[in-house]
What we know:
- The chain is an alpha/beta fold.
- The chain folds into two domains: about 30-130 and about 230-325, Periplasmic binding protein-like II (D-Maltodextrin-Binding Protein, domain 2), CATH 3.40.190; about 130-230, D-Maltodextrin-Binding Protein, domain 2.
- The protein is about 40% helix and about 15% strand.
- Helix 1 packs parallel to helix 4.
- The longest helix has 19 residues, at about 240-260.
Amino acid sequence: xxxxxxxxxxxxxxxxxxxxxxxxxxxxxxxxxxxxxxxxxxxxxxxxxxxxxxxxxxxxxxxxxxxxxxxxxxxxxxxxxxxxxxxxxxxxxxxxxxxxxxxxxxxxxxxxxxxxxxxxxxxxxxxxxxxxxxxxxxxxxxxxxxxxxxxxxxxxxxxxxxxxxxxxxxxxxxxxxxxxxxxxxxxxxxxxxxxxxxxxxxxxxxxxxxxxxxxxxxxxxxxxxxxxxxxxxxxxxxxxxxxxxxxxxxxxxxxxxxxxxxxxxxxxxxxxxxxxxxxxxxxxxxxxxxxxxxxxxxxxxxxxxxxxxxxxxxxxxxxxxxxxxxxxxxxxxxxxxxxxxxxxx
Length: 345
C-alpha cells in the first residue's frame, strides 16, 4: 500500500522541467520523431491491465483504445502500426516515464490538468470520462452518503480520483477509509475479493472491470464520483514541436476520417476517387507529410492499418465487446458529443 504524495510529485516534476529548460545550451535537440525512425519502434505506455483501454491478451499482444492510439502514431511515423513497444506503468510512474525518456508517448488513462501539463506536454484529448465508485448491491450502498465509514480501494497517484472523493466527503459530510495500492489491479482484486466495501476508478475502467473481472457482473452497482468531466489524452515530453505536431494531427486523422465516412474498408477507394480535400489528406498533397517529416501517405497508413475513431472505439469499447460502453461525450460534435476534427486549411 502507498499513501498520497501526488501533489508533491507533480511539484517535483514541474521543478525538474523548469531546471531542464534553463540548462540547455545552444544545440538543438533532435525530435523524438527522428529518434523513433532511427530506432524503428515507438515506445508507448500501457496500464497494468485495463480491458478495453490497454491490456495484453493471452498471446501478449496489447489491446485497447489507448493502445490503438499508439499504433496510429506508429503508422504515421514508421508506416507500420505494429512497430510499438508497450511499457506497463502505474499511475505514479506514468509522468516521470515521459520526462526520463523511458517512453515516447503516454497513452494510458491520463487526465489533462494544469500541473501535469506543466510537467509534460499534453497533445490532445482522446476521450472524456469521469470517476465512478463500484459497490456490491447486497451492501445497500445506494447513495454517496452510504459510503460513510466504508473502506474504499483505490490506486494511489491519481489526483483527480482524490478530488472526486474529497468532493463527496465534503458535500455529504461523511468520511471514507481510503485504502491505497500501487497497482490498479491489486486495488480491483482486493475489492472483488470482498476486502473493501467499494472501489473507485475511471468510469470506462469501471465498466471494463465489472464486465470482464467480476464473477457475476449483476452483483455490482456504479455511482458517479464527483461532478468533473475528465479530459483524458496523450502526452509527450515538453519542448518537442515536431512530435507534438505528429501526435496531434495523427489523432485528428481519426476524427476527420470518421466525420467523412472514411474507414479501413474504403480508404483505398477514397484515396483515388474521394473529393479533392479527401484526396489531398490521404496522400495527394505531400506538403501535409513534409511539414512534419513524414511520408506523403502517412494519413492513409493510419486509417488503413488502425481505422477511424469509431472503428477504434467499436472494437475495444463498443456494443460488440463485453464492455458495451456508450460513447456519450466521445461522440462527434455533430452527433451530440464533444469530439470534432480540426480543419486542414
